[in-house]
Design a protein that fits this description.
Elements lengths: L2 H6 L4 E7 L8 H18 L3 H13 L8 E6 L4 E7 L7 E5 L14 H12 L6 E3 L1 H9 L3 E6 L1 H4 L3 E4 L6 E2 L16 E4 H11 L3 E4 L10 E5 L3
Parallel strand pairs: 6-10
Antiparallel strand pairs: 1-2, 1-4, 2-3, 5-11, 6-11, 7-8, 7-9
Length: 228
Amino acid sequence: MNLLEIAERRGPFAVVYMDASPDTEDSAQPWDLRCRSIRERLVTAGAGQGMLDQFDRAITDSPPGRGRAGRLLILDENTVHVDEYLPEPPAREVVRVSALPYLIPLLPQHAVQQEVLDTFAAEFGREGGLAVTGLGATAEALRMANVDRLLIDPDRLGDRTVQVGADRAQVVAGPDGPASWTAGTAPHQTCRADEALPVAALLMGAEVTTVSGGLPSEDGVAALVRQR
């Protein structure tokens, strides 16, 4: 799966990150009820009929398996862009209709996490090191195409939002865009940071890693930058 190709697509998207585990041997009814509830939440979130049709088709074509699993669906009015089974169910179910895709469940973690955190700690601990922390500093580095690797702790980032420019690689943590933005790239929408930051990083060629703890950042965002 090419995350960059997904990041380059234009929304809106319907995103469902759900528990795809069967509950019991007689799991058809619980599964049906689960899917019906998610469909209702999609309607409430503003999903169009095309999105609902794509969701219904994906659920019908691929019922739950036998073991514990999560499932991520990213779709629009015309097609399902991602239908991925993941090793574990999400800690919290996600049902959204957004301008940007929610890619965090697909990002690398575990195996590379400690190595990345060790590198970040070394850079953060030395004078002039190639590390920045916090949503504001990280967004500025992304805007300047100066991020080599974005680090996100999703639990600490939570529901924070950013301003997103017309080219989507331009993000700002505050309510207003910087004076250097031209009219063509001025922020035109408020988006969730957990969607906007990975998309911006991928569009500028950076790596993205999710972590669980270990970042010296209250908002769960940091980056290894290319230069000071």
